[in-house]
DNA sequence: TAAAGTGTCAAACGATCGTTTGAGACTATC
DNA sequence: GATAGTCTCAAACGATCGTTTGACACTTTA
């Protein structure tokens, strides 16, 4: 129950996230979208300029939060003597899982997985320019903790970890929470699975 | 140089695979597609009935070959005493890598990755009905080789392996072959990376 | 109170989509 | 040589797309 009604911009962004996750960027039309948001068709172009700019805003809103938390988590442990691989993976994975269980945030991971599959150059450039430093910093920390790996080996493994996490967090095959498990417990179990899997794949001899 | 010209159906299927990989199922129009294939616009509906049926045929053509090879590889080793986890993973991964390096087959893995991201129910049902038995059989063999894992643990890990392989084989971040390495060598290196990573992720304690 | 700014609305724009049509070319059958 | 079947072709169909327009209501500024 929201006593203060959402602004038109916020209603559009919310509906866009849901419909982009369900039907893709092309598949979700502005007519569907504005109808779902309860606003006029012309509102998207008035407030965002174009559909493409709306798509960018959908990303920016969630990724600023997501990667901000990731960098904050990494900053707490990076470079320390006692830091483990699991710690670094936790800093990368847990913010995404928290987002997944926050309102419509879970749908955003589906939107993100779509963006990866699209191979769209404009979108990739946008993601790389705005958030590329996050992956670079995490990779640097992995390199410090896995000194026995060559640069090529490490890149391979980090790439495979990225694929596994994107796939899992997009909810493609995510195992459903049972009714006798609290959501918090389930989230912790999911994080544990992901982290242990990734750590094993990254660090094997 | 093909002395025997391809049939209209084959030209459409070839062009469809390329354009679906590049622009997606919605993004690639029949007008682009038929122009690239050098055939008339109406040829798609004449030979395939509709765009959706064309999409199904694009999948069927490659997946029959791919999963046929996977099942043949699995049949050679399934249930044997001396079979290793790496053997089973090899039977699953190598046919996909061979496809990736065969003509336009590499683009098909991108098409497949798109299909996963789409979450389209019709397509998922089609894939599950026609090729679901392949994943079930491989999972059964994994279960035999990893008896210490609970059913839930195993499903989690197999799902994460699937994500990593789909991601990697779609060529998203696949490390480029260097010019001083033969294609065959590079393919073997890729298979080795994937198999070792997946084996570590599946079997860790 | 007049002017300027902000936001919403129905309606229309031109473009592009998947699909259908009907005429015509070609081959095989009788 | 007429007939039936297979295939190709240009053209058009209706639908839907993202975007633009101009009128109108409301608030803020002067």
From TrEMBL, chains A, B:
Domain HTH tetR-type residue range list: 6-66
Pfam families: TetR_C_30 (PF17939), TetR_N (PF00440)
DNA-binding residues: 29-48
Keyword DNA-binding: yes
Keywords: DNA-binding
GO terms assigned for molecular function: DNA-binding transcription factor activity; transcription cis-regulatory region binding
Keyword Cell division attributed: no
Cross-referenced InterPro entries: DNA-bd_HTH_TetR-type_CS, Homeodomain-like_sf, HTH-type_TetR-like_transc_reg, HTH_TetR, PsrA_TetR_C, Tet_transcr_reg_TetR-rel_C_sf
Matching SUPFAM superfamilies: Homeodomain-like (SSF46689), Tetracyclin repressor-like, C-terminal domain (SSF48498)
Name of this protein: TetR/AcrR family transcriptional regulator
UniProt source species: Dyella tabacisoli
């Amino acid at each position: 129950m929201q006593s203060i009604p959402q602004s038109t911009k916020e209603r559009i962004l919310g509906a866009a996230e849901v419909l982009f996750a369900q039907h893709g960027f092309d598949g979700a039309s502005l007519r569907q979208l504005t109808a779902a948001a309860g606003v006029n068709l012309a509102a998207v172009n008035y407030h965002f300029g174009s559909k493409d700019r709306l798509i960018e805003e959908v990303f920016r809103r969630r990724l600023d939060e997501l990667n901000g938390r990731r960098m904050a988590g990494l900053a707490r442990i990076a470079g320390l003597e006692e830091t483990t691989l699991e710690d670094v993976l936790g800093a990368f994975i847990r913010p995404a899982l928290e987002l997944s269980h926050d309102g419509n945030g879970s749908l955003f991971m589906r939107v993100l997985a779509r963006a990866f599959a699209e191979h769209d150059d404009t979108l990739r450039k946008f993601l790389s320019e705005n958030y590329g430093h996050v992956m670079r910093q995490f990779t640097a920390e992995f390199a410090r903790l896995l000194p026995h790996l060559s640069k090529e080996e490490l890149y391979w493994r980090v790439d495979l970890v990225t694929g596994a996490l994107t796939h899992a967090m997009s909810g493609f095959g995510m195992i459903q929470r049972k009714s006798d498990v609290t959501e918090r417990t389930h989230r912790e179990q999911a994080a544990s699975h992901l982290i242990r899997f990734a750590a094993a794949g990254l660090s094997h001899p």
